[in-house]
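User: For my dataset I need records formatted as: sequence, then structure tokens, nothing else. Please produce one.
Assistant:
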Amino acid sequence: MIANAARAARAARVDDLGTETVFAVAAEAAALAAKGRTVYPFHLGDLNLPTPANIAEAASRALRDGKTTYCPNAGIAELREAIAVDVGRSHGLSCGVENVSVQPGGKPVIGKFLLAFMDPGDEVLYPNPGFPIYSSLIEFFGGRAVPYTYVEGRDGFALDLEQIERAVTPATTLLILNDLHNPTGVECSARELEGLAELARRHDLQVLCDEAYFDVRYTGSSRSLASLPGMAERCVILYTFSKKYAMTGWRLGAAIGPRRFIDICNTLNVNGESCTNQFVQWGGVEALTGDQSGAHEILEVLRRRRDAACDILSSTAGVRCLQPNTTFYLYPNVTEAMARSGLTDYEGFRRAILDYTGVSMCTRLHFGPALPGETQRYLRFAYSGLHTEQIREGLGLLKHFIESYV
């Protein structure tokens, strides 16, 4: 009786709260492994690489030195300064400590951006396929999540700029951009960034630039929408240590943006977590100002894994796999492979692969519902959590499974 009464009394908005369905896939993979099966975990975008030793030692030293108390709500000055210098250099922005608010990971920046700029009923443009927490939090806070998408071409995926323009209404106030994109691995072209900047200025949109993978790239250099003329004052950058330094579990990130947002963000810090773990922040200072060889080695390992995974998927009949220069994801088109297998349902195809090969991955539907007119089918592979030998073994089994239907 008590439990039933408690359920009936919950807030209605909880019904709008989504999740990362990849964790359900992870649970299935763990259950299979518990039965003694070999599982190849391509589903979760985590890293099985150690945080560089100099970073771990700096945090340990801070812990031993008693850096375990409350600290400034915006983050320790040393870390805010280091982040400002890093972003100023990489983005070509004039950035000071007043433009930085340290966060317990990158994900809190999404919610604080929405709380600062979105009123109930406002429309927010967000990428689909994309990180599912975008739409989850938009709806949870009372907004309306309006998807935009990417179109696959011969050489890669491109933003559908015309669709984005058509989606704008008088109620549209915000745009979320995940450049260096999860799940496709694509980055915006110069033309696309200029098109988005023009649209944001014309419609007076505030923009969240989710740049979690800004430094996870194998050739070329990243460019931020915030660096374009007139955009620094309307962009908030989501910054994280998780990917570049293999610090996913450390929960350390930051919001970088105009002072008017950072002041709100710091007030939200006070009302929420008070502050980010202090000794973890000292690890972040070392990450940005200390020896970078560990970060370079992480990137080289990821490059080798990407190449191994892409080589096998690209050679698999019925699969088209583009090789991105960024992130640690592959997003192959498996439309033909699914048709040949007769398994035309995403979940049926995914579970058959898991059962027969032990390869666990996500499908396109783990990154948002299919949009009207969508005909192509995709899987997403994260190669960051497997050694190269595991990648070759697991995807070799997947190749054999798919080609058995040819």
